[in-house]
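Why do we care about 3D structure at all? Because function follows from shape, and shape follows, mostly, from sequence. That is the central idea of this module. The next example makes it concrete: a single protein chain, its amino acid sequence, and then its structure expressed as tokens.
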Amino acid sequence: MRWIALCLLLVLAGCGAGAGASQAKLESFVGLGSAPRPAGLKPAELGTAEGQEFQRILERAKLAKPDEVRAALSFAPPADRRAFAFVVPGCAEDGAELTIERDTLTAKLTGGENVNCATANYFLTVFSVDRDSIPAAPTLLTMPR
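And the structure:
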């Protein structure tokens, strides 16, 4: 009977572990408008060389909301968390979520259903994640709408 209870406990503890809902928190969401996505822009971890390059690329793009972008990218997570920035194409979304599956973090926009856009809009999202819930070098992806 103990083995059954232990197995059930292990199964229940593993449920939803890949979803990342409890480990990921949306820290910033900034609409960037419909200007073309800057060349060479890839999701990045803040506080790293890649994060600094991400910020430089966005600053050179001369966005309409440079102060909001700068503030979002200045986010410094506490020691037990890491922060990741993504630019995701969409339409009229009003939020975003981060899915964690094994070694992959995927940003996806939410909201804005039933809106038809002629031109894509872009959104800057910054998430913080429990340091212990992800590997040292995760794969970062964006999921277009």
